[in-house]
Prior knowledge:
The protein is of the alpha/beta class. The protein contains seven helices and five strands, in the order E-H-E-H-E-H-H-E-E-H-H-H. The chain has helices at residues 18-26, 46-54, 66-69, 73-85, 102-135, 148-156, 161-166, and strands spanning 4-10, 31-36, 60-63, 89-92, 97-98. It starts with a strand and ends with a helix.
Amino acid sequence: MGRRIGYARVSTEDQDLAIQKAALEKDGCAIVFEEKRSGSQRDGRKQLELALKVLTKGDTLVVLRLDRLGRSLRDLANIAHEIDGLGAHLRVIEQSVDTATSAGRAFFGMLAVFAQFETDVRRERQAEGIAKAKKAGVYTGGKPRIDRRRVLALTEGGEGPAAVARAPGG
């Protein structure tokens, strides 16, 4: 039997990883990789990449919930494929998934589809809410991040990109 490697993720800096970390350690994870990044995309998730790099044949990557690993069907399928290609397995504690078994692989597939569905429904609701708020005149979009007129004036005045970036309102 191989090692259990844990992966814990929250979406924002102000969220806490303690509950996930404690559950992973209780499950026997010798190493726990921790990350504070969105799970909507795989890009930039350096701790996940490290966790996958240390997996060897017979090891198990353990997460508390499937949404901690990813939120898109494609990302979850790709991650599962990589783990399988290493001769390792995936275990999801709260959803009783273990890809070491055929039933666990099937259940993983179903949960991955529902994770994608949940993400899609959330986006649809958000878009509907924004459209409704715009129609009511409540939502006008985000605040401008830069003063475009100021940037244009500085560039026309001969300032370079670094000077424009340092200038107030640039």
